[in-house]
Amino acid sequence: MSGLSGAARAVATLMTVVAAQGAHALEGRVVALEPGCPHFVVQTVDGFMIYEHLFGPKPRIDDTIDGPLDRAGSWKARNVTSAADVMMYLEAGPIPQRKVEAKIPFKCKKNRPAPAEAPADR
Hints:
Elements: H1 6-24, E1 26-33, E2 39-44, E3 47-55, E4 64-67, E5 73-79, E6 84-95, H2 97-109
């Protein structure tokens, strides 16, 4: 790119960034979540991914999520169903379906408040 003008270099850089982002874009469907739990599961062509919802409208069952679903860390994705952006954190994935049930309760248990003690009988 050293022989390109400033404008041509900027366009080439932008095209490279767009191509790199497109290479990581995946689409998945929300298949599991629990009320009161920030974690949810998305099924992709690569397998099941567990995410923590950080902010934005919380996805619902059967919502379609589009973005770099296989990228580690926090990032913004698009909830295609609700036409809203969602910030998410990849906790685990891809994982096989048989391990999803075991992982979700564990991750949600650590976020649940302790049960209140029952009142003593009088």
